[in-house]
Recover the amino acids of this structure.
């Protein structure tokens, strides 16, 4: 969890839109251990990729982790989705559902 001179706290600089508490008001340990978003972020790696519609049948599941949750949150609004910006199938142009826009 990052702490700056500003009051809000968030778990990572890549997740700076995700405010989990306020310094001086919320207990750090309580937020770290029990905030639903923190729990979801920790459990993300336990979710079988085959259970995600975007990952079904993917040959890279054996070593893929689904990527950083920041991109999953940005694109799908769900920390438990895959991050298409870290997806091997997307990066190789093999994904039928997501194409990185040119530009
Ligand atoms: S490479 Fe992409 S589609 Fe395959 S398991 Fe990883 S995130 Fe899912």
């Amino acid at each position: 969890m990052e702490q700056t001179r500003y009051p809000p706290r968030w778990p990572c600089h890549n997740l700076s839109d995700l405010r989990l508490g306020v310094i001086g008001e919320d207990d750090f340990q309580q937020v770290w251990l029990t905030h639903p978003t923190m729990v979801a972020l920790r459990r993300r790696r336990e979710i079988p990729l085959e259970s995600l519609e975007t990952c079904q049948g993917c040959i890279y599941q054996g070593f893929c982790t689904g990527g950083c949750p920041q991109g999953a949150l940005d694109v799908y609004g769900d920390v438990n989705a895959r991050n298409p910006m870290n997806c091997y199938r997307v990066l190789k142009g093999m994904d039928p559902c997501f194409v990185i826009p040119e530009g």
The two ends are 33 Å apart (CA to CA). The chain has a mean pLDDT of 84. Residues 1-46 form one domain.
